[in-house]
């Protein structure tokens, strides 16, 4: 019998990273205080506020610099970059808030000790995580209950979502007769042997993946009940996919989409909507004031390399499908669409040199705060698209227009997780993210999006 492998869920891995980041730093600082003459940071009861603020700064800047993005946490180069940036900003802000943190030490060498204690402890823990906890040895074995013609695609999508899943085999939901022991490279399991197979191969989870309302064969259903009674985790594929990717599997759901995806009550929660509207007005006023400070730079840049109108407006589709005019700083040549509307793409030749700077820094979007003040847009929501693109995409995705049940936004769950769409296929992926936001819309998710947006701006990743 194979030994049982260790597996951490995605959410558990992120919590683990956050907790041990703070613990590793505290352990290093404690070692400094008892081993050397280090007095800047103290673990006395009177220093509880300073301790809490350090943990807060580590988690805040770790989030901004993507320390808790599992792909970043599994890449050696990204670990080095994110750890250095997080340490620098943590130490910088900690030193600048002496009301909540210790007074600056007279011996500036103490600050250097403080900096390297944080940096080296984070490095040590993150490289331990990379080589042990992020290893493919820590996988979750699962068995699918699905039709034979879908196992390959389902396994492919789940593997993309979380490579730590290992497909041990599948049980056909259509027939009790095993026609082929190997289907598309996956072992087909006889339903009568399912319980034995789960025990023998240390299967952690059974995933049911049935499209539409197709019933499970009664004998297979009874086997699943037996496994459930014995403590085996049984989950539905859409639940697994949504948890792993943080987007909705709309292609898998097909015509059952409306039945299977209840949307967030926040979409109709008056208190939430009033609070968010107040935040949007305040944020927009501050954004426009800051945009006014940037206006001379934009004017000079536009005059040098982007001659033509400073602003441009364009029709976009808003809430409930109502069109509105969007405002932006112009970043493309003046006759960018003389041959018709096309999707913006990476390295688009229509974007001027200064326009690239405006887009990557997101400065081109500052005039959209006018749209937010007018009520056409929100700060957070799906990206507003042009009517011509909405019509084209809706022909291929009949439920695409569901994204219009809320206001479009300056930033959103799709924008911070995926690049600008260059095709209908890209729009499909972005739609999955947009609908995830609409389903789970909350203050917590909104704050998460704002932090990720700050990360995009600081890393100069706009397009």
From TrEMBL:
UniProt-listed InterPro entries: Bact_transf (IPR003362), EPS_sugar_tfrase (IPR017475)
What are the alphabetically sorted keywords of the record? Answer: Membrane, Transferase, Transmembrane, Transmembrane helix
Q: What is its main location?
A: membrane
Organism superkingdom:
Bacteria
State a GO cellular component annotated for this protein.
membrane
Domain Bacterial sugar transferase per the UniProt entry, residue ranges: 277-458
Q: How does it sit in the membrane?
A: Multi-pass membrane protein
A Pfam match: Bac_transf
TM stretches of this protein: 15-36, 48-70, 82-105, 111-132, 271-298
Record carries keyword Membrane: yes
Give one GO molecular function term: phosphotransferase activity, for other substituted phosphate groups
Localization terms from the record: Membrane
The record's family statement is: Belongs to the bacterial sugar transferase family.
Report the protein name in the record.
Sugar transferase
Question: Which species expresses this protein natively?
Answer: Flavobacterium supellecticarium
């Amino acid at each position: 019998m194979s030994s049982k492998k260790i597996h951490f869920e995605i959410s558990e891995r992120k919590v683990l990273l956050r907790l041990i980041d703070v613990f590793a730093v505290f352990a290093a600082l404690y070692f400094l205080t008892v081993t050397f003459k280090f007095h800047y940071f103290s673990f006395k009861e009177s220093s509880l506020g300073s301790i809490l603020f350090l943990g807060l700064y580590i988690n805040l800047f770790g989030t901004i610099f993507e320390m808790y993005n599992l792909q970043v946490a599994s890449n050696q180069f990204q670990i080095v970059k994110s750890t250095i940036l997080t340490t620098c900003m943590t130490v910088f802000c900690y030193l600048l808030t002496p009301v909540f943190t210790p007074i600056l030490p007279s011996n500036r060498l103490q600050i250097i000790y403080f900096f390297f204690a944080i940096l080296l402890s984070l490095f040590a823990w993150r490289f331990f995580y990379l080589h042990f906890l992020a290893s493919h040895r820590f996988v979750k074995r699962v068995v699918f209950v699905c039709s034979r013609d879908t196992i390959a695609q389902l396994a492919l999508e789940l593997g993309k979502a979380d490579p730590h899943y290992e497909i041990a085999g599948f049980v056909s939901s259509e027939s009790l007769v095993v026609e082929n022991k190997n289907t598309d490279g996956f072992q087909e399991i006889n339903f009568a042997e399912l319980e034995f197979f789960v025990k023998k191969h240390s299967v952690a989870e059974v995933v049911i993946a049935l499209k539409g309302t197709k019933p499970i064969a009664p004998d297979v259903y009874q086997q699943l009940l037996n496994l459930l009674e014995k403590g085996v985790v049984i989950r539905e594929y859409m639940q697994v996919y949504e948890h792993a990717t943080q987007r909705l599997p709309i292609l898998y759901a097909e015509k059952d989409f409306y039945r299977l995806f209840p949307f967030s009550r926040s979409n109709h929660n008056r208190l939430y909507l009033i609070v968010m509207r107040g935040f949007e007005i305040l944020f927009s006023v501050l954004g426009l004031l800051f945009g006014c400070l940037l206006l001379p730079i934009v004017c000079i840049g536009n005059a040098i390399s982007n001659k033509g109108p400073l602003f441009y407006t364009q029709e976009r589709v808003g809430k409930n499908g109502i069109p509105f005019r969007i405002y932006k700083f112009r970043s493309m040549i003046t006759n960018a669409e003389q041959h018709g509307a096309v999707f913006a793409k990476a390295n688009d030749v229509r974007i001027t040199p200064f326009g690239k700077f405006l887009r990557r820094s997101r400065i081109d979007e500052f005039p959209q705060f006018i749209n937010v003040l007018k009520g056409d847009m929100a700060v957070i929501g799906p990206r507003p698209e042009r009517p011509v693109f909405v019509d084209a995409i809706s022909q291929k995705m009949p439920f695409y227009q569901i994204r219009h049940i809320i206001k479009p936004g300056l930033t959103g769950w799709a924008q911070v997780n995926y690049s600008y769409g260059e095709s209908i296929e890209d729009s499909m992926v972005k739609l999955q993210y947009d609908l995830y936001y609409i389903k789970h819309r909350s203050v917590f998710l909104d704050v998460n999006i704002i932090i990720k947006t700050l990360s995009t701006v600081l890393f100069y990743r706009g397009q």
